[in-house]
Amino acid sequence: MPGICGADARTKWLATIELTTWSKASDYWDARGWPRVSGAVKPGSRIDVPAHHSNVVAGPVITARIAWAPRRGVSEVEVAIDGGPWQPARLSPQFAPTLWRQWALTWQAEPGEHQLQVRTLSGDEIQEESSAPPYPHGSSGYHMIRVHVLDNGAEPPRWQRRLAQTRANLSGRFRLAAMPRRLGGDKASPADRLSLSRCPPRGAV
Question: Is 160 within 8 Å of 132 (Cβ atoms)?
């Protein structure tokens, strides 16, 4: 169901069907302590361009990706640079409130290190700023990336490019490895770790 977090909508191979009651049934996520009450997917957004810890050339730079707010739809997306004022981004057409919307913002990048944050607005509702893990009611918080802006398009040394890529790779691995610890320590299986790294974990937006 669009806009509702649910872990029972990804069946690949159906082996049996059992007629039972809600109170007597138990599934994969129940056994791992997830709430049985269906939760709504929270408004959210993320930055994929440019990549975290990447290098860009000074001048006009495009930052972009997707936003979602399934209950009422995405009305606005805003980007803040280095903690400055929120700037409205351009949005793709909205075909339905339950669908993702692409967004983009062009900003003037000055040489040096910069931080970018993004948030979604849905009517009078603003995406939650405080960070929270997927368990137990869905993840929240503004997505943030850092980029290094090069002066006059100068290419950084090879070691610096490799260091930036290593940092980006390790950042993703640390997030993946840390998630199961919040749900029961080292007992989580590799399959659990992969599943828990997705957002939102209990259903598609």
Answer: no
Q: What is the DSSP letter of 89?
A: P
**DSSP E strand boundaries for 72-138:** 76-81, 87-88, 90-91, 101-109, 112-122, 125-126
Q: Looking at this protein, which amino acid is placed at residue 190?
A: P
Residues 134-188 have pLDDT tens digits of 777 778 899 999 999 998 756 666 676 677 777 767 666 655 555 544 444 444 4
Helix, coil or strand: residue 57: strand
What is residue 111's three-state secondary structure?
coil
Mind listing the pLDDT tens digit for each residue in 5-27?
Answer: 665 555 677 788 888 887 887 77
CATH architecture, domain defined by 39-155: Sandwich (2.60)
* Reported pTM: 0.66
